[in-house]
Records
---
Amino acid sequence: MTNSSGKIQMAHGTGGRLTRDLVAAVFGKKFSNVILDRMDDAAMLELEGRFAFTTDGHVVSPIFFPGGDIGRLSITGTVNDLAMMGATPLYISAGFIIEEGMPLADLERLALSMREAAGEAGVQVVAGDTKVVEKGAADRIFVNTSGIGLIPPGVHISGAGARPGDVVILSGPIGDHGIAIISQRQGMDFDVEIKSDCAPLGGLVRRMLDASPRLNVLRDPTRGGLAASLNEIAAASRVSVEIDESRVPMRAAVRAACELLGLDPLMLANEGKLVAFVAAQDAGRVLEAMRGSPLGAEAAIIGNVLGAEDPHLPSGRPCVCARTVMGSRRIIQMPSGEHLPRIC
Amino acid sequence: MTDPQPLAFLDEFRSPRHVRGQLKKLTTRQERRTRIMEVCGTHTMAVSRHGIRQAVPDWLTLISGPGCPVCVTANRDIDTFIEMAMLPGVIAATFGDMLKVPGTRFGLAEARSRGAQVQIVYSTLDALRLARENPDKNVIFFGVGFETTAPTVAAAIHEARLTGTNNFFVFSVHKLVPPALEALCRLPELAVDAFLCPGHVSAVIGPHAYQPLAEQHIPCVISGFEPLDIMHSLNMILDQLENGEAKVEVQYSRGVRAGGNPAALEMMDAVFQPCAAEWRGLGTIPGSGLTLREGFAAHDALQRFRVDASYSREPSGCICGAILTGSKLPTDCRLFADVCHPDHPVGPCMVSSEGTCAAYYHYEI
């Protein structure tokens, strides 16, 4: 690289020689594949079938956190959105907005962890863009990724697909990512040994689809946590959802951190978990398939879908509710306000 | 955090078998219309979150009191702190809850978007550290809280004086619980049969602080915060009422000692002195607030920064005041969950993590 400072400069983003050098030395080298290596203005993809297409901006702070970093997150975030449609993730694009002065070594480290995550997810990074902004105009680095995935024939998964009688399955303990980030934030002298769960979920979803192609809903409870996902699904499907609080898997340290900080674990972000709505007769098979994968080893049935007019509903109208330890029911609201900014 | 013991402990207090045992004891009692006020915001949240209100029989009404420190903070004080935050060269440090609370003109979140430097801290010592790391700025900490918080703020002020951290200031609107309960009891519309008293506050001030209430024939039971604690405490209160007794009892014996926490009380007393304080809903109560003693005046934000919040007024239509005294329910408010919502709050009770309206909104409607 033709820059001795070891830091990103404005010239790295002007499109000139430094840009070319940076792209070639960092991204070209790490992400190398037949499509990207052509270095054309756009990737040429030969595709046939039904596709899922999504995009996601990543602004997490701090950029390095226990269990991951913004690079890994930028891959898993996008491939997981594809996987939640039942799609097999294929191709990813990555756009970087870098703050002037960011150490090149950090950028290399992020590119490396993107490569690792892409390898785990089975996707190729086939297009990219790099911009540099003045110091203070961004916080070190923002990464936008878009992705395309192929939806297998016969798979129809949608947030609107939940049906009364469906069983709700959660793939593992909630809140790890949220607590991992909180514990790193400035002002928090808080010693929690919790790592982000940040992981690509495509493999887990394939196992589940092999067990039953009739998955009605899949959702990864990221920002807003399980509470937001369940409320979105209930609203889109026009049903009510009831979960049993005591069945929701959660690490002891996450629970303790929530008690200390007054956080609701149901609202904490996850980056490697999914919630599935499955017809009751398929639930056992799907659960077993999930538990056969390391990412679903602690999967559990946490609840079921009620009709919109179920007489047991606390509010008498469609909602998400929880059975409490008292045996009574309480509402689980859609999270609101600034719960925790820049979590992903 | 690596020690699993405290967590196993937590599980015990949430054990469905034990909790339902207490519930059964309660539901098999003779029916007797009873109103019990939980004084602490953490209790309010626990009652809502664990569905306790729904589980107890109809003859028992649980009402929420003025136990959320953010909620009882008068708008004039909130506006004053926002004005301080807007001053040049100031870093306003606050617990996260205050960020979302609306002021008369705007809240701290909007102050931040207008350029104020507002920093959320998780402890007062973090605010003190902020002052040390930013010697060219004045760090003002918003001292909101009851006897649980005040000693830690006192310790930070004490340390600031010891270490010569002259750019650390506290705007103290701390409040004391017992004077407020006594003021509550003087309200003609208040018809409570007993108080479920706060666990953490009592760990500092000790059970004897409620003796004057017991002498007015109001049973007081100091409760922990888990479902089992609360159910157990309700049964203790009902036992007292059935036996025609009124005394102070401690259910939260794992946290509350007879003399309270002498070290905390001493620190609080060294730095603060009681003063009259304005409470939302209760008005001004003599001796219910804490102000910095003369020897610590150099760290008193109110003395150092002159700001004008004379425009301050309570939000119109909001009945937070009546809710804080237990005379109205959140669902009685015509703004509730519609005009006043966690995303666009009118009153503080909707956004504080211990607010009664927030508890109802998040868990009960």
Note: The longest helix of chain A spans residues 104-121.
---
Amino acid sequence: MHGQQGNHSWHTRPPEACAAPPARGLYRTAPRVPQNGDVSQDVAEHSDTAERAPARRRRGLTSIEVLALLLVFGLTARPGLVELFGEAAAQAWMARFVAVMVQAVPFLTLGVVLSSAIAAFVPAGFFHRVLPGRPALAVPVAGACGAVLPGCECASVPVAGALVRRGVAPAAALTFMLASPAINPIVLVSTFVAFPGQPEMVWARLTASLGAAVAIGWLWIRLGRTEWLRLPAHRHHDGGRWAAFWSAIRHDFFHAGGYLVIGAAIAATLNTLIPEAWLAPLAEHPVLGVLALAALAVLVSMCSEADAFVAASLTQFSPTAKLAFMVVGPFVDVKLAAMHAATFGRGFAVRFAPAVFAAALGAAALTGAVLL
Amino acid sequence: MRRDAQAVVLLLLGGGLLRLAVTGDYLDYVKPSALWLIVPAGLALITVAAVTVWDVWRDRPEAGHDGHGDPKVAWLLLAPVVGMLLVAPNALGSYDAERSGTAVGSEEGRAGYPELPDDEDPVELALLDYAARAVFDEGRTLEGHRIQLSGFILYNGDEPQLARMVVSCCAADARPVKIGFDGEVPEGLEPDQWVEVVGVYSPRQGRDEINGELIPYIEVESVTEIAAPDNEYQ
């Protein structure tokens, strides 16, 4: 949750000072995105000097010692823990939290392995050659490429981060990130299955999601500023590509995973606390119904591969409202917003979430009016 | 968090996932098909942990960026470890089912209701299947058969109902299907007790107070207490 602040002054501080707070060093953010290669080299040199002798002697508990203490405490306190979560509501919350994590961690792992492979093994100029040079043209191409990554949103966020690092225009990478969990084959097939006899739902979802993703990419070209993006710096190192690969996996997994925990906890809380009865009166209203399901999609943070089934079961709502649920959910929800903040920085996340919500809602309403 | 601590957390997470897969407890949280994601992911995490330990052991100079450890948010990954390994919550049951509306609406657009087999007696049906046939097909295919359903008990006020959670992706999106009992029901059934119900189709229907959907009924012949199945969701 921290670590982004203070990196500007960091460069001006003498190297010894950097070593003082032991846990802060790694997550250096590069000030500007496209050029972050050279910046991170600079970071590497600084911290290598900082790393040495004085830091070792001054530190208090190392993290492994803290971890060991926590584990011993956890094991001895286990009966108390079980009792604490014996209460039906707490038990239900914990079951939902664990469920979200068990479902999301494999996809996160897939995304992190992919993104680390891109970071370590794909040559820097590769995407420049593959994607059209003009960003305005690269955006729709990237959106269409989203159809190839068969994962849900937990996988696409770290991959988009790796793409930006590899020099892909942020607009194109963001479009890819939004499009891929919404329009990949698995999601489209599950939508088809969830709405038997309504294949127009699949087309509406595809059109609205792709349209909104491309719109966001173009919007970024016009209004976006690279200084909003603060990618955690990957330092250069001389251990070779495999060393880079493994350390990128660790870094991205712990980073995005930590934020995923926050998102999963919020989603589990909302799922446990929001009584469904609140929704029913809104269903009748054509506009409020759409807004209610769009807001619900943000709050419950459902995996994009499953949201069609849940949308289908919300039968009191209009088809456009269900479409809004399926278009908004993969674009932005509490879990994703936390992961966006982890991957691209908080300044980015607070601007991105409302823009994306508005685009998705608009696209869903428009497509619903025409197709459904 | 330093690399050595990271290795331990990765090992615990990967091991936790594999443990869920081996014991079958993963069915309390996700669909059976998720096994094919959980096992590779668990193995991958353990591999990363092993590589990390190897690097630490060889005392490789800080290859990469984990010199000082990752941001403190990484510590939060201990929460799912505690959840999976220490608390190990049970599958969702009557507490949640009493608070959410019946999910029968998701079956509304179903293409067809194949005839039930004549050579089975009673015919075993999933709760959602029974509810869909009763609500959207007026029980046409149910008549003339004895039906066997299994689920847990929940109380709607004083009235016991049979319920089962339907999961689309993971337990976080679990929604109940509820069925009412018509006729004689044994007294003193506890909430969350799993039962096997044999009965015949009843045209009686009620409404779920929470979302206004229809709740079908079954004319009860017998109610037998059973142990909870491995996969409590449908």
Note: Chain B touches chain A through 80 residues (CB under 8 Å).
---
Amino acid sequence: MKKIHKRELFKIILSAVLLGTAALVFALVPLDYSNFGFFMLRICVYAGIYMILGFDIIRGAVKNVFAGDFLDERFLMVVASVAAFFIGEYIEGIAVMIFYSIGELFQDIAVGRSRNMISAAAGLRADVCHLVTEDGVVDKEPGEVEVGSIIEVRPGERIPIDGVITEGLSGIDTSSLTGESAPRSAGPGDSVFGGTVSTDGLLRIKTSKTAENSSQERIIALVEEASMNKSKTERFITKFARVYTPTVVILAVLLGIVPSIITGDPARWIRTAIMFLVVSCPCALVVSIPLAFFAGVGRASKEGVLVKGAGYLERLSDVENYVFDKTGTVTSGTFSVKRMTPAEGVSENRLMEAALLTESGSNHRVAEAVVRYCKDRGAESLKEVLRYKELPGLGVEAETESGIFKAGNERFAKTAAGKGFSTDGGNTEVFVFEGDEYLGSFELGDNVKKGVRETFEALKKKCGAKRLIMLSGDRDGACKEVAEACGFDEYRAELLPEGKIEQLSAIIKDSSKTTVYVGDGINDAPVLALADVGIAMGGVGQDAAVEAADCVIMNDDIGKLVRAAQISGKTVRIARENVVFAIGVKLLVLILAAAGFGVMWVAVFADVGVLILAILNSLRVMRG
Amino acid sequence: MKRYIKIEDLCCANCAAKIEKAVNQLEDVTKCTVSFMAEKMLVEYDESKDFGPIFEEIKKICKRIEPEATVSL
């Protein structure tokens, strides 16, 4: 508990004890209160007790009233308690102050606790940094370490600063940044990020940034700043609060005066009015929404999805269109052989052997893919290559004792005087010849990432997505194949960057719900910006991607889209529950108070209770 | 120009909304957003103006609406 809270608690207990004692004494000692002296004595004793808590509150209230704010909650509490004194309910007047202060204290503590629980900082910041100096290893605050220093990270410790490993081997657990649970191994020369954990080895790292500019601090800052971008629900509740408080206050004044005159029972109605004033504070209403979204953004970041605004998180709950970039987003951007087609009368083994003979000598990535494919299938080349010739932009030739083998692209095949080869012109192809005899072809394609199909099914079934669309600059044939493999509803191929913008604009215009664009964040910044929510994949260490997108999936796991949508859905649901609950309880208390059933306890519950329940409800986002 | 300001011990969400509204009405401030949860304020202000006096005004507003809070850059 903070010092300021302890002082407040002390004042509350003191007031409560003194109030109890005074009430008891005045009840046991029969004094004639119609006597002016005794009357004043009693008022002064109660007023003194009142001031223990009341002084600060009155001072704040007066300041604000002079600044033109008549709906300051402190002012309303002062009015309520003074009204109680006015009708001779001294105990009730002090009780208003005590309950109000208890409420405030509870709120402070509860909100503070929930801030810490949700905060990303707890799981990302290292407290200490072992700096390697000439005189040995010294412990420093990460903030004091300069760029280019050598630091030591012991097994199980969190890496405090971004850098490059100079010594040691260790598994690096990046789950706090990426949500990826399997540790990757790292050794000298590998970059490591602040906030990740070295699992088993002792590392020495040369820092490449200050602690302040390292990965963990950027993420903490982004998560916190996400709450600057407000959700629609939050804007609604803030507006509602602006109407709510004056309305309740006006009702309180009317209820305090009009029925009193009509019924001639001011005590009953002024008490109702006091209750109204106590319930008029909109704090619990206003906090319940950002709290839920703060928790939602926090949860997402723990799973490796960085959402840069509460508004974006809210929109992710209602996505109709998911639009994807192809290369690097749904595909890994690496080639592999999709199909091998031997020419008629040629065995697969003969084709593969010829391919290995030729392509093994090339380090072109297409050639590498062909070699990998053939070796995976157990092919071997037994002949010795005597001479090797690379024809740039075309292919390769390998000379052996038994003749010349050739492999190359379509242009090469046409000029190489081969006969009998065929092509459909869709994907990248490699044609293989022995002398002039055509042996067959390999068709290569980009690899679809693992889990894309499952992710797409889940997006449609669980997250309510209607259209899955792929936009690509690649050739139609290649796009068609990827689109079918992934389960896209539609695709548009051969788009220039402007074409992507046009297509996306049209998709957005067609839909009243959210349109999400998912890209790699490196060369599609304008499209990311255009979408309702622009999501970049693979953001660890890629500042440009983090900058350009509204939401960043820290590792390459496309399945995180489903988690993002689920967390968003849960957050929005909880925020709505909070609103309905907070407003509902307040209205209920108002009705009870107006009907004469109100008790001060209930009025206090309306505020503190609602707040605490909203906090507990919001924390559900962090679980499950 | 954009600038973040820390507001520690900001303990009432409605006060945060009030502070936001009041700072938005300052002449040299183009936009102000207060995040109650992050206890931070983002101020966008006229670049040609000196930030010092603006910051003083902001401090004053915070002090009035939320006396317990401490404001720092």
Note: The domain at 2-72 of chain B is CATH 3.30.70.100 (Alpha-Beta Plaits).
---
Amino acid sequence: MSFFAPFCIPFLVGAAAMFAVLAWKWGSWLWCLPRTDKRLILRGLPTRATLEAVGEVVGESLLHRRIFRINPLLGYMHMSLAFGWFLLIAVGWIETMACLGLHWVPIQGHVFFRYFSTGLPHVAAFDFLMDLLLLFVLSGVALAWGKRFFSRRMGMRRTTKHVPGDRVALTALWFIFPARLAAESITCALYGGGGFLTGSIGAWLGAHVPEFGLMNAESVAWWFYSSCLGLFFVAMPFSRYMHIFTEIPLIFLRRYGLRSGEKATSYDEFQVEACSRCGICIDPCQLQSVLRVDDVQSVYFLRDRRYGMLRREVADNCLMCGRCAEKCPVGIDLNTLRLNARDGLRNVPDERRYDYFKGLDRSSGEGKVGYFAGCMTLLTPRTLSAMETIFAAAGEQVWWADREGGVCCGRPLKLAGETDSARRMMRYNTELFRKHGITTLVTSCPICLKVFREDYALDGIEVLHHSEYMLRLLRSGRLALRRGATRFTYHDPCELGRGSGIYDAPRAVIEAVGELLEPEHTRENALCCGSSVANTAITDGQQVRIARSVAGELEATGAEVVVTACPLCKKALGRGTAAAVRDLAEVVAAELK
Amino acid sequence: MKMEKMKKKRVIVIGGGAAGMQTALRLARRGIEPVIVEKEAELGGKLRGWYVLFPTFTPASEVLNELRRRVHECGIETVLSAQVTGIAPRSVELADGRRIDGDAVVVATGFSLFDASVKEEYGYGIYDNVYTSVDIERMLGEGRVAKADGSRPKRIAFLHCVGSRDEKVCQQHCSRVCCITGVKQAMEMKRLFPDADVFNFYMDIRMFGPGYEEMYREAQQQYNVHFVRGRISEASPMLDGRIQIKAEDTLTGRPLRMSVDMLVLLVGMRANDDNAALAAGAGLRQSPSGFLAARDHFLGSVRSEVEGIYYAGTVTAPKNIGETLNEAAAAADAVAEALGA
Amino acid sequence: MAAINFGYTISRPRAIDLDRNNLRKSDEILREMPELQTCIGCGSCTAVCTAGNLTEFNFRKVHTLVRRGEYQGAYEEMNKCMLCGKCRLVCPRGINTRGVVLLIKRKLGDF
């Protein structure tokens, strides 16, 4: 039998165009990867990573488990569309084979099987199954319509705004499955067959519409269905639906250990285009929820970056608190992409810059333990003197790296995108640490901590946040604390919690001196104080508004003292509340036995 | 026809500081029966903590005692140790559940002092030898101004605008009186310690009152007080207990650092902590700085937007003692006029 | 450091001539960040400056000169800044000082 009808042309052209663009995009991205990344892929291919990636593709690209966890209704919508469509294709394939045996059938033969199979005997089980799957997908489409019009009822305060390519693809996608339903039903009306859905509608149509009308309608319906498919396929690689296919290689590459860095690489393209623009990142963003800034969130940033229309104001207006990345169902490394976009906008290598570091050494004291206060801590002297008390109580010999001033850790500059110059600062500090022969580096600033751990080459020097250090002193009995009845609440600094994964150490320390009350948003979901150095765009007044909203939540715990472990958070929260705001070190120093 | 004796009108004055006492006295003189509600155990308010007043070095006790004497003499009813929790145009609620009724209310609750320990970088409450202007007045009053170890200071620095004109502590307004207080206290320090060097670190010097500019000039010329234009940014302790301070000498454009024996922070006036609660309950309006907003700046400066509630003194904005006393009289007159007394 | 003179030494015998200085860049900068006009020159930023603590760098002076149309050397001077953010924490006017540094560099840099 022949598997061709003129209405197949839009579909065939669309599919061919889509696969050509896909091949070109993936090919060029892979080709342009840095050599080290290519080596990672080759080394990873024959390992377990590949199998794990396959599992993750099923779990995420088809079943969308992560979205399910965040918002079940939204998860169902994505799953019904992705997994349902996948099953329609897969089961359709099996159906063709079941009917025709192992016989080569061109692609349109599978896709439009119901049209071509009118002469074949029907298998009721497949008719039922295919109708069930179609209903499954249609339920997802219905939810997608619903989400457009009633986003709040879907548990999302906001949904994304679209680019033209998206609108074309979205419109086509909306009509694909209703069109399929119509086309198949009409064919069933004319030739019989079909399951509970298409068969019933077909029977009804057959009874109420004259055959001449159905004949004409059939041709129109199949043309419309094919055109929707073709249009969707053509628009897809240029729309957000590119994520359908891009997430798959991304999962593999990520399993092979590829990561985005401070300089953009073509691996970033996989991440950028894997964004489905689901908009889940919008709600956690405090710039949105507190300040009503609603065009800078990760989804818009990725969109703008992808289409080459990224404005500095968008790139810069982000606290990099990581609340969105925590929720991203695709697991895109949003902060790093933001960072290397800033690098692209701003990095200007200047070899002479910071020549004044030469020969500089303002450090004092001597010891195997080095303490790096960080610039901000110099403005919170209570933390500084508390650390001094604690070191003395533990009998620690300390080398003070920067109490009389020193060179910044480099992270603020890096976060602004001037990554090359930041490296110069990092080199200076690394040499300083080496010169003084320290084996442990303690810092009370999470911003410094993160850059020391991630960007400095400090082999042989253990880097500790002061919360970890104090906990160690407590556990080893070098510090003894009085436990009182004071009720504390703890604010997780972004760079310490989500940034460095340190949630338990500060809590354990607080519980050694009093009772700990958790605010509504805590740990991975903790709010940002609003004064993040990563944001150079918002005003002072906006920072205060964020601080007030966060402080309000901390006050609501009923705690007497708000504790945090970051000088910047401390300063910020202090502006938002009249309650006492203390650094962890102050709390400890006050309760030393 | 027999004239029935009119019942005396009764006005509640909230706050027994300079503003409250003056308002009450003026009301009494106009034939109205005032009742002062004061949260402390005695009358006097913030004036009790003051030693001498600028620009004349008049002892604060002179003004205070005279006001108290007159209040006593006039037999004005006072309710002490009473915290007001709610205001209405004809009554106030007290924390203990009592209600005081009257024909009008004058809010003369004054200001709150800025807590200098909020500006952590200045080390107040962390290091010895960092004081506030209020500490200095108290020490002057006690007749014992000295470093923490009891010795005589040789170098003293005053820092202006602590908690004023500072968005970082959400206090945008100018407290007005700290500039002249800094000058006054610097002169007192020089009188006590003629050998000491006294420095005033300022952003702008605002000498708005009569005799202030002359006093400023006198401090510079007769007392050799140094004025450095720059805001101190950090204070850190030294091994010998002195304080090292950093600023930019903005007139030379160079960073400046020096060690001092005493650092005095000239703390500003904040809107009264109770304003928000009182305003919300009574429908009064707060200005962005948190002070209660008068109906207008000119003809209604002692009137609130609620009929029957009036303002006197620093509850509406920072003021000096003289202005406060004048405004209190104006408030009393406005009340009397409205009550037809 | 002494070898490089960026034009900010006190001895430079030159008046700021607002009749001749081209304020176009300055206007652009102030349009993007009007809050810079609120600087009252208290010097807090310069006093806390991490870079200014190590080398000759005066943020207040540089941005003031830029506002007066004196652009020469401003980019190079601003490049001494490490963007640590201490100044932003102390500015009594709440000026986004880090933003000012980046803005001035962007407007006056060669790129």
Note: Chain C is about 40% helix and 0% strand.
